[in-house]
Amino acid sequence: MRPILMKGHERPLTFLKYNRDGDLLFSCAKDHTPTVWFADNGERLGTYRGHNGAVWSCDVSRDSMRLITGSADQTVKLWNVQTGAQLYTFNFGSPARSVDFSVGDKLAVITTDPFMELTSAIHVKRIARDPTEQTEESELVIKGPQGRINRAVWGPLNRTIISAGEDAIIRIWDSETGKLLREADKESGHKKTITSLTKSADGSHFLTGSLDKSAKLWDTRTLTLIKTYVTERPVNAVAMSPLLDHVVLGGGQDASAVTTTDHRAGKFEAKFFDKILQEEIGGVKGHFGPINALAFNPDGKSFSSGGEDGYVRLHHFDPDYFNIKI
Amino acid sequence: MAAEVMLMNEIEATAAQMGIDMNIDFSSIQLPPGENCGIISDDDDVYHDDELEFDSGFGNVIVVDNLPVVPREKFEKLEGVIRKIYSQIGVIKEDGLWMPVDPETKKTLGYCFIEYNTPQEAELAKEKTHGYKLDRAHIFAVNMFDDFDKYMKVPDEWAPPEIKPYTPGENLQKWLADEKARDQFYWTESFVQWSPMGTYLATVHRQGAAVWGGANTFNRLMRYAHPQVKLIDFSPGEKFLVTYSSHEPSNPRDANVRVVINIFDVRTGKVMRDFKGSADEFAVGGAGGVSGNSWPVFRWGGGKEDKYFAKLGKNMISVYETETFSLIDKKSLKVENVVDFSWSPTDPIIALFVPELGGGNQPARVSLVQMPGKEELRQKNLFSISDCKMYWQSNGDYLAVKADRYTKTKKSTYTGFELFRIKERDIPIEVLELDNKNDKIIAFAWEPKGHRFAVIHGDNPRPDVSFYSMRSTHNLGRVAKLTTLKGKQANALFWSPGGRFIVLAGLKGFNGQLEFFNVDELETMATAEHFMATDVEWDPTGRYVATSVTSVHEMENGFNIWSFNGKLLYRILKDHFFQFLWRPRPPSFLTPEKEEEIARNLKKYSKKYEAEDQDVSMLLSEQDREKRRMLKEEWEKWVSEWRRAQEEEKLERQKLRDGEASDEEEEYEAKEVEVEEVLDVSEEVLSFEE
């Protein structure tokens, strides 16, 4: 089906997130204003105004009531999804990169970039049910990895935190003590900056995308490398179909290296791979800049991609997609 | 859907399944970095000597022998003469000329020492004046001072050289015996070159060139010492290797870059002839090439026997023969103002071109000269010529001369062809002009071993492609146009080595458009695109075409392999891709008649191979299925493990969610709710018209 082009952002997209019901799509961009759309027809529902810098990521609570956003303006904000009202602002000394609600939505893990004399850090905040009782205090602060931490997410039962970033190493931390539990094997792991990390629907495995032009699938509990998907371009975004055994990789050459040549040269396609056989099965073209964000609708029947070109493209799959055989 | 991207390891795996040995140890060819590339040179002792020379400072001293023996009164005169000769070559050091005198007779001893500023000058002086005739009785014998040491060390007693047991050489052409006649290709990230018949692979290193070859593994067969070698070139019959290096002048006043060219025997590694001189001497005529020189400097002629090689000089062509490695008849072929020449690919015939002179008073001239007799076979005068290019057909049957002529106003040029039929009596010449005379010629190519040629012409961005045959249907001696294809996005022509098929390619500016064309049927077999392609290369048998994007572009580096009829077979991407070379094959031993017979009965022969092909593909799909089954099984194991863990943790997860039930609820359920909204109701009266 023809993709739906959603033009609402003025700057490159950074992150996309569906709510659990799959009826809302939240988009973050460098233009300071996270936006919510109807996931079915791409109609714009509203924006969340208040950030004063690029918004790097967001997460929405299971009941679709709360939105959390992390921004380069050194704040993380909690929003009322419905009204767009700011509920609380966490202040940091450096840009906030990644945010993720825990199972039960009582905790959030936030990563902050290295900035001035500050090193990068992973913060765990307790999210109060009543926003008036919300406090600034961190439950836990983890430091250690070199360079930016591009993504940190919760492991099973909130017992662990999985982080990945510029140093190309995936780490699993104890979310109680902050102790480092596991580190990915250097031999088989990524060779360059890990740009994205996404968990499977049940949280049992996760997919990482890296500038080394590959994506890797890992077991969440043991950090065993299960699969590797090799592509031709640096990977900026990854997504996993909750319905079929497909993974999608998005990327393209460096935004700074995008030349004036044909758009075909840039490889700005979203590439579909068979999750098990690791073989490429197809591509979805359309963006005229690298793909920075990808997300699957929880029903697995549509997905959306966000590009450096400022567009969100919403794709509903054709019936033949569900019969692909290789 | 994009073509399947093959990964290197997949190729290797596939190759292994098919029993192809990919284990050529490329790392042994990709030499370890370092001054000597990890090779301990045979010439190391020589290098040590060089170093010593620098230390002791005698490297710049030469000894001139066979001088006249003169009494004291003539000493100064002789010294003056010697100084005059040798100061032309380089700067003699102060007190650098020493002619010893017999203390008793006060006569000179017939030799002297000359010390130059640099060893290079000394070397040059030795080159230039060794054998210099001062007069009949006195022919200079010049040696490097350091060489004396070497000669002195020669033992007085002759020791019989150790006879090395003969080691049988490997079958260097084993790849040809591959029962499926698979072709080999090779890609590199540095400079290598196949020999013309594919026996050797040559690599260039700091201290010389090396050739590699062998039956199963690539071994180094021979090394050719030539410090700082830059360019190499094989003779067509692989007998000789020409190496080239240029050296910055040691003396800043000396503006000339020094050029050294060695010709080696490929098998023995012996230097057959060396040429030294300033770059200017080797830069006459010809354009392009490296640093102003046209490479190869020497062009080989006389077919695969490597009998002759020739060099363009000022007003002459120097033709050497390989039996003696000296000029034919001891002198060069004198041709006033010659600017270009080329050998027939099969016969010892040179075609040379002399441009117009004296403002058109003396016409331009193309002539064919037979070697070694130097008789002129045919010549043709051409008027108002601006430029001229010569194209030989691969069998040497035809020569096409593309002549750009000025129009009457001299403001623009138009192009015509002079077609020489070399093999016919008296070499008839035919003039061919394009239908539209003003069309610019973009490319020209002969059909290998055939009678046809193709031309891309036109001025607009979509030029036309025309095919001509040297044998028209009614008259074998007439050229006739076969067809013109209008408006093609092409700027280069690539005939299949077997003829018949041609790839019209739009390289670089045309984004890599490819058209596979069958000239026999005059029909397009396929059109395709390899985005940004820079090079097209047919495999030597004409079965496959490789198109590649080399690292002149930053992106898309890699190569595609197509079947001759334009089906994409492989797509392989590799960063910093530099060069794609098919391994050449020696010419077929079959006679043309036999080849024709095989072509006629192709069906019969091909049946056998088709069956083989099918077997291979069956085997592959079998293995593929097996591999997939394994992967699926492995995956299932993970999934069941995850399901178990998920189940175990279910209660705890519920607790974390404040008792909110279940993961089942995560299962998505779609409910369709129809909502009807009345937006607006209005009534209108429409009038009917009869």
TrEMBL record, chain A:
Gene3D superfamilies: YVTN repeat-like/Quinoprotein amine dehydrogenase
WD repeats: 6-47, 48-89, 142-183, 187-228, 284-314
Entry-linked Pfam families: EIF3I
InterPro entries with a match to the protein in the record: eIF3i, WD40/YVTN_repeat-like_dom_sf, WD40_PAC1, WD40_repeat_CS, WD40_repeat_dom_sf, WD40_rpt
Stretches assigned to coiled coil: none
GO aspect biological process, one term: formation of cytoplasmic translation initiation complex
Record keywords: Cytoplasm, Initiation factor, Protein biosynthesis, Repeat, WD repeat
Record has Protein biosynthesis as a keyword: yes
Role according to the record: Component of the eukaryotic translation initiation factor 3 (eIF-3) complex, which is involved in protein synthesis of a specialized repertoire of mRNAs and, together with other initiation factors, stimulates binding of mRNA and methionyl-tRNAi to the 40S ribosome. The eIF-3 complex specifically targets and initiates translation of a subset of mRNAs involved in cell proliferation.
Quaternary structure and interacting proteins, as annotated: Component of the eukaryotic translation initiation factor 3 (eIF-3) complex.
Protein name: Eukaryotic translation initiation factor 3 subunit I
Source species of the chain: Gossypium australe
TrEMBL record, chain B:
Acidic residues biased stretches: 661-674
Keyword DNA repair: no
Key words, A-Z: Cytoplasm, Initiation factor, Protein biosynthesis, RNA-binding
One of the record's GO molecular function terms: translation initiation factor binding
Subcellular location: Cytoplasm
Stated family: Belongs to the eIF-3 subunit B family.
UniProt-listed HAMAP family: eIF3b
Designated name of the protein: Eukaryotic translation initiation factor 3 subunit B
Species for this entry: Gossypium australe
